[in-house]
Amino acid sequence: MTRVRLGVNVDHVATLRQARGVRFPDPVAAALLAESAGADQITVHLREDRRHIQERDLRVLRETVQTRLNLECAAADEVLSIACKVRPDEATLVPELREELTTEGGLDVVGGGARLAEAVARLKEAGIMVSLFIDPDPAQIEASARLEVEAIELHSGTYCDATTAAAREAELTRVEEGAALGARLGLMVAAGHGLTLQNVEPIVAIPQIEELNIGHSIVARALFVGFEEAVAEMRELLFRDD
Ligand code: PXP
To answer: Which residue of 46, 73, 75, 124 lies most exposed, with the fewest beta carbons within 10 A?
Structure first.
């Protein structure tokens, strides 16, 4: 029996706080509850427009998180400087568009050029483990391995959003093949985006997937059952038979 590690993304606790411009709910409090319910990692995305997580959240989380802190960020100078100063355990580089509701699509590692390579080098020099958030596309996975990062996070959003059984099956196959390729190339393979209690199990069953990062569905569920219960319910589904 293997348990896939659970990274809980607390961004949307901050989204609610920012909607009122007040001090609560605090994503730091949510992170503490997530850890006490068995989360293995806390994930936050410091966006350029600061729409949810603020620099203060990142600093306080760095001091309070007892598991691991995974910072999602764009390969942009300002946020990379903050990352190198705060030194999360891991940085996951993601594409970032100002108009998007959430991260849409994976990073273009194939076309990432010197800018991406420099971002990876900067983070590694600061002693931060680097992961790249990419679509389950063989070319992107191979390019990630060439950049010598330690991990990739496969974008599960297309699988989650598929509206027909055939499309979902095809997307699941892409994630399965991508995970196998990533592991063969020596990368730690995570997945994330759009995962819910209803769609997570086929992803958990993929033998090479070691970690999932899940935010929206846990925060949404927490409104009705409480934060710890929402994390615990998800964690229960992350076991697979080997
Ligand atoms: N992983 C990455 C890289 C993300 O950008 C996000 C969204 O911030 C997530 C996981 C979590 O996605 P969701 O909120 O849909 O669970």
So the answer is: 124
User: How long is the chain?
Assistant: 242
Beta strands 129-134 and 5-9: pairing type?
unpaired
* Mean local confidence (pLDDT), 42-64: 97
Secondary structure of residue 119 in the 3-state scheme? helix
Nearest CA to ligand 1 atom 1: 192
Contact 158, 132 (CB under 8 A): no
State the average pLDDT over residues 188-209: 98
Question: Is the bond preceding 25 in cis, omega lying within 30 degrees of 0?
Answer: yes
Q: Which residues are catalytic?
A: 45, 72, 193
Label the pairing between strands 239-240 and 2-3: antiparallel
Distance in Å, CA 85 to ligand 1 centroid: 23
Decide: 158 in ligand 1 pocket, CB within 6 A.
Answer: no
Largest distance between two CA atoms of the chain: 47
- Over range 217-223, report the average pLDDT: 98
Give 72-81 pLDDT, tens digit per residue.
Answer: 999 999 999 9
Nearest CA to ligand 1 atom 3: 133
- What's the pTM? 0.97
Express each pLDDT in 135-187 by its tens digit.
999 999 999 999 999 999 999 999 999 999 999 999 999 999 999 999 999 99
Distance CA 220, CA 212 (A): 17
CA distance linking residue 91 with residue 72, whole number of Å: 6
Instruction: Name the strand (E) or helix (H) holding 143.
Output: helix 138-146
- Quote the ligand 1 centre to 197 CA distance (angstroms): 15
Q: Give the integer Cα–Cα distance in Å for 173 and 161.
A: 15
- The amino acid that residue 136 corresponds to is P
